[in-house]
Amino acid sequence: MKNSDFSQRWSSAIQNNYGVPRIALVKGKGIVVTDADGKPYLDFLGGISTNLLGHAHPAIVKAVSKQISMLSHVSNFYAHPNVVELAEKLIAMTGAESGKVFFCQSGAEANEAAFKLSRKTGKVRVVAAQGAFHGRTMGALSLTGQPSKREAFLPLIKGVKHVPYGDISAMRKAVTKKTAMVIIEPIMGEAGVIVPPPGYLQELRKLCDEKGALLVFDAVQTGMGRTGDWFGYEYSGITPDVITLAKGLGGGLPLGAMIALGKAANLFNPGDHGSTFGGNPVTTAAGLAAIKFIENKDLLATVKVQGEYLMQELALIPGVKEVRGAGLLLGIELVSLEAGHVARALEEKGVLVNAATDSTIRIAPALIVTDAQIKKFISIFRKVLSDVS
Ligand SMILES: *Cc1c(COP(=O)(O)O)cnc(C)c1O
Question: Hey, which of 160, 173, 289, 353 has its CA 20 to 30 A from 5?
């Protein structure tokens, strides 16, 4: 079976909501993946910011194998050690005094949970950002600020206002005493890796306190060490009321979470929400293993250094307009080239990235990427830009 065979079978058996992939990946080790034709790639997309420790990482393989050979699923009628330990760990990582976690499988579900939690304040209005991505289910899509993704599915849930990202005065106009929550990405991922101006998150915290609105950080893409901080907002020095996570949280397995802190932690009561697989023993084992590995190897510090190096070096390449982001979540803005075209050329040369927008290449390699692999990526990127321009 070749790539082309899988593409053909995909096109007839899989819904046409993605477009048909040209490549079928069949195995991986670290950040190298191999396709069905036997071609290896440097995986600089990491399953879209998801494979925290790359592929087939011994720590994940061991934790998952051990857990699945012991107990695979229990439902939320029963506790088990991993779910409790991971929840405690995540709360401790926020640095907040108290909090409570709801586990699910995806980012959309984590944001759905936050949306429902906000209703328990007794208020219904929400303010979110234009261009923001919060997921595709009807509730999460109501929060998502991208008209192209929403249009075919209107009407969505009422009461959500979208204001320009990073514009605190627009927020001041939109957020009132009737606002239940403000939801914002610490760095907008899908929109092309957009970093808000200095002071924005701090001002949002003040504004939400003033109006009695929950401040929700969607750290689905920025979270789990990707930016060199655990959740991508810590540089601001503030703490939100709610953090949503998924992507990297399960170390490559499907795991999402909504962490509510302080008073927000106690808004849900029994029966308010649920998920059959939420907090599954195997996915939480993987999440715990990933966090422990990152802590033991002090990877957050490495991610910061590698991110700064990448930013600096990539910005020097002719054809690159700017490099945005933090740590190992970077958006490379091109001067004039079409990002999709560049992504395709990189793929030919054995590097996987994605075109987040028409002009932005996004990279989000696993946090175990080596300095040598980073250098290799930079050199291939430079070559590709000079070839295609
Ligand atoms: C990917 C993403 C989501 C949606 O996550 P899914 O697991 O695809 O539902 C939500 N918010 C942000 C910021 C994301 O990057």
Answer: 353
**Cβ–ligand 1 contact at 35 (below 6 Å):** no
Say yes or no: CB of residue 133 within 6 Å of ligand 1: yes
Check: CB of residue 248 under 8 Å from CB of residue 219. Answer: no
Which CATH architecture best describes the domain 62-296? Answer: 3-Layer(aba) Sandwich (3.40)
Letter for the amino acid at 94?
Answer: T
Continuous H helices in 2-68: 3-13, 46-49, 58-68
| 389: confidence class by pLDDT, cuts 50, 70, 90 | confident
Amino acid at 43: D
State which ligand 1 atom lies nearest to the alpha carbon of 136.
Answer: 9
Sequence-separated (6 or more) residues with CB below 8 Å from residue 222:
185, 186, 187, 189, 231, 232, 233, 326, 329
362-384 per-position pLDDT tens digit: 999 999 999 999 999 999 999 99
Does ligand 1 come within 6 angstroms of the Cβ of 43? Answer: no
Domain boundaries, the chain: 3-56+298-388, 62-296
Give the burial class of 162: count Cβ atoms within 10 A of its Cβ; 0-12 exposed, 13-18 middle, 19 or more buried: buried
At the topology level, CATH places domain 3-56+298-388 in: Aspartate Aminotransferase, domain 1 (3.90.1150)
